[in-house]
Amino acid sequence: MACQSGSIEPVRHFNKDEFEADWIKLSECKFGQVYQVKVKLWREKCALKSFDTTTWDYRFYRKMIDDISNMVKLKFKYIISIYGLCSEATALVMEYMSNGSLNNLLASHTLMWPKKFQMIHEASMGMNFLHSMKPPLLHLNLKTSNILLDDHLHVKISDFGLIRWEEDTSKMEFMECLTARGNMAYIPPETFIQCPDPPGTTFDVYSFGIVMWEILTQQKPYAGCSMTTVLLQVSQGKRPCLGMMPDQRPSECDQMISIMMQCWDHNQGKRPHFSDTVRKTEALNEVLRIPGPDHGYKNGDVGQKSDYPQLVLPLYDITLPEMSAIPSVEQHGKDDILSLLSKKDFSSFRQSVKKEHVHTQFSGQKNLLHYTVASGDPKSVQHVLSLGAEVNCTTARGYTPLIVAVLQRFHDIIALLLEHGAAVTQGDEDQWTPLHFAAQNGDDRTARLLLDKGAVADAREKDGWMPIHLASQNGHETTVRLLLSRLSEEAVVRQEMVRGRTSLHLASCYGHLNIVKLLLAHGTDPNGADASSSTALHLAAEQGHNRVVRLLVKSGAASDSADSRGFTPLHLAALNGHTGICRQLLSNGSNPDSKTLKGWTAMHLAALRGHDSVVVQLESQGGCVNSKGQNGWTPLHLACHQSESEVVAKLLAARADPNLTEDSKGWTPLHVACTSMSFPCALHLISHRADVNAVNSGKTTPLHLAAQHGCVPIVKALLLNGADQTLQDSSGFTALNIAHQCEKWEIVQQLEKGC
To answer: Which pTM value belongs to this model?
Structure first.
């Protein structure tokens, strides 16, 4: 771990023409965009993080330029590398991380416990490095969306140094800066109080505690709670619910939970330093990553190569069986034949092993041949076979020696076992054949050998997965090409799994463009639907794979097909903020006003998630800004409910009606904004002639609601714009009565002044 020493090198300044023309938008928010770009000279992918100077203080960007020399010098395995600046795009040029953010992975995959522990430890390593700087480099924006994943699902901390505490910064300004980025769940309680002390290292430690909870539970903290509710709960010492921890968890998880609770302690003085946390998480990570009867997991991880079973399962419920490691010397006597394998003393092993050992069963019904194959020594395997070992013996979970060899990619041993009659079609307890394992690992050499020896290319495991599904999901193009050459035309076309998903669904979902091309060229139906009526286009649009979407549409995929919930690809692209994909779909005939079964248009969904650029795109292509969805809510209602002031501004600029009422209680958007305590939203509405005295079905006015929730700025704005404080609700209460009842004394004072 080190920061490169020496004199500060000049920061590299990139021009736009140094990048290839095809910029791929990876993500977008109100503060800027992140693109995948390719540097012409390096022939290497990079990430370009651009800042919207209309929402960022340009002084901040200038300050960042001043500090960039030190940021470029930071080199560590678990933090993102920064390469330089592109001033033309007001952007940082950074290391590209192929598997996106931890936030997205937690929502789309089921992580196994060893992988969770590994990610927690690696994140603690990155934060410990930042805090070891002199002075400590505070992150102040640590959350799962700022933890990124490389090709092998190792984590790196990003966006450090982008939020700063300046000497003239007030706590209120700092809070506004954080909450605008959706960070409420990660802010420690001391930040809420009017204390002049600037944030220190304990701020990041608290945020890390919340991140740990997210990783362990794979849930979002305080889901469904308003910002005010979160603020109150955290201030009162409440934290995300421990009851959401999975019941089935290893004993080591209790120690990890204890570390987590120390990190989010209400007393910041009791929170541990990252230097202590790193040591504790390292110990737990090492214990849990040891493969064995309690820790072996099925392989579902895309691209991770390790000596122990891979640890991430896509949410399509792929599961593979375990294979325990060779018992260690500590588990057996020094003269035990298994300990000789463990020590890789193969010569002594071959001299010691007798015929009676060959048929001995060990734990999990494993035979000596299983352990010998796992050792990786072909001569020892040949010797055990010569002593009469059963080449197709199985463990309790159905593993044959051939499956063990395929998992380990021991090609010489695979050939040896096949020569001795190993069954290429024999599967494990879940009917995974050796070819399934080879396809998932992208082991073309083994796959070809198995196929030449009679492996069935369209063999299905218990859930209907064929080897081509696994190769397509994991991006193994050469393996897919090989399997296509061995499948009949009918098998290629009719390759649905139990849930109806084809290899085209999987390749599209994970953005494997070349595999999508291959499958389409071999006659796969671009409009094939799974059990929930989702097509490959639905999945590609949802995940933001622009080029896959373009190819599918060009190949005849229906842009307006609806899934079982009534969602079209446009709905999913809008919901996830993929503006470019929305543009593509609209230009290819997607109906901007198509409604889901609950009545939501793409405009509603974009407003709900705060994607203002999508809102603008939809409106420019004819999308209705006043469309009513479930219970008569308009996009403007939803944007106010979510306090998305930029979306509110864009909708109003597009002539959204600020006085439309929803159907159930007659609320206007201004009622909703007052309940959400969103002062910016309320101001936008008032400036566009929202009726400040509108009454809902209970005769409640916006002023009643603002008084109830104690939002002084909104009360002032309403009064200054003609709000009538004498109006009574259906119970006969004025806004002043409500403020008294709710003990909002500042509001009481304001209303009594009447201005």
So the answer is: 0.60
